[in-house]
Amino acid sequence: MPGMKEKLEVLYRKYNRRRYAEQDPVKFLYNYEDMRDREIAALTASSLAYGRVAQILASVSAVLEIMGPFPARFLAEHSSDRLRKSLKGFRHRFAKETHLADMLEGAKEMMQEEGSLYQCFLSGMKKEEEKLLPALERFCTRIRGKREPGHLIPYPEKGSACKRMHLFLRWMVRKDRVDPGGWEKISPSALTVPLDVHMHRMGIHLGLTTRKQADMRTALEITAGFARWVPEDPVRYDFALTRPGIRGENTPDLF
Q1: CB-count exposure of residue 70 (10 Å: 0-12, 13-18, 19+)
Q2: Whole-angstrom Cα distance, residue 178 to residue 46?
Q3: Is 55 within the bounds of a domain?
Q4: DSSP state, 251?
Q5: What's the Cα-to-Cα distance from 237 to each of 17, 146, 234, 245, 252, rounded to whole Å?
Q6: 3-class SS string, the chain
Q7: What residue numbers bound the domain in which 142 lies?
Q8: Which of 88, 84, 105 is nearest to 147 (CA)?
Q9: 138 exposure class (CB count in 10 Å sphere: 0-12, 13-18, 19+)
Q10: Beta bridge partners of 215
Q11: Number of domains the chain is built from
Q12: pTM score > 0.85 for this model?
């Protein structure tokens, strides 16, 4: 498609701005300079990023308010009982307080063992693996442990698109006007698009996939398509391309 990268760049320059992030859970990450705090905020925000936007923002805000300005310290200083009491009554669609507590306890345990979620993810990476999917499987397995975080932590090996975990990785690996980054030793080239209904629609619209099922295979197909234009950063256009659909605007005319 001649000129497609240029058209995507125009869209990127238009929408990839923080003012468009006001209705996106990524905005919560901007409050945390310390990477360990940002990791916990990102894990919380991404895990709850499903459903109506207003509900997502309200739920994420409520949890982060409970943990205060230093979420990593909050987890370190709270026993399991205290953590569960602090989250008592929390509910976000299918997620109960017990699911959220189990996820955060898993994150706390990894931080105690490795120092940060970043170091934990790095320890699960292998040089011969070009994509992050195998490392993501190991990461999710460690968070779960023997706990029951429910659907908040997916099973990548089962073939789901794992949209929310790929969103978490996009936020933590990429660094631009929207994504704050912090995980500098991981290349954006290894990322996979966070496949939601908007990106799936755009992937079909751009001819990057014909698959109707929004699963991991489709996410990888769409990612490979973007990699033809930006191999160093195939998730570059994710935020910009999904803004019109999320904002109720017309699909961008890219042809």
Answers
A1: middle
A2: 15
A3: yes
A4: P
A5: 12, 37, 8, 14, 13
A6: CCCHHHHHHHHHHHHCCHHHHHHCHHHHHHHCCCHHHHHHHHHHHHHCCCCCHHHHHHHHHHHHHHHCCCHHHHHHHCCHHHHHHHCCCCEECCEEHHHHHHHHHHHHHHHHHHCCHHHHHHHCCCCCCCCCHHHHHHHHHHHHCCCCCHHHCCCHHHCECCHHHHHHHHHHHCCCCCCCCCCCCCCHHHCCCCCCHHHHHHHHHCCCCCCCCCEHHHHHHHHHHHHCCCCCCCCCCHHHHHHHHHCCCCCCCCC
A7: 4-246
A8: 105
A9: middle
A10: 160
A11: 1
A12: yes
Cβ partners under 8 Å of residue 23, min gap 6:
53, 57, 246, 247
Alpha-carbon Rg for the chain in angstroms: 18
Residue type, 29: L
Domain-located, residue 251? no
252 assigned to some structural domain: no
Q: Which amino acid is at 52?
A: R
What ranges make up the beta strands (E) of the chain? 91-92, 95-96
**In the structure encoding, which two tokens stand for residue 167, read together?**
């969103």
Question: Is residue 15 assigned to a domain?
Answer: yes
Residues in the chain: 255
What the block records as the tokens of 36 is 């360990």
One digit per residue, pLDDT tens: the chain, 255 residues? 458 999 999 999 999 999 999 999 999 999 999 999 999 999 999 999 999 999 999 999 999 999 999 999 999 999 999 999 999 999 999 999 999 999 999 999 999 999 999 999 999 999 888 789 999 999 999 999 999 999 999 999 999 999 999 999 999 999 999 999 999 999 999 999 999 998 999 999 999 999 999 999 999 999 999 999 999 999 999 999 988 877 767 666 665
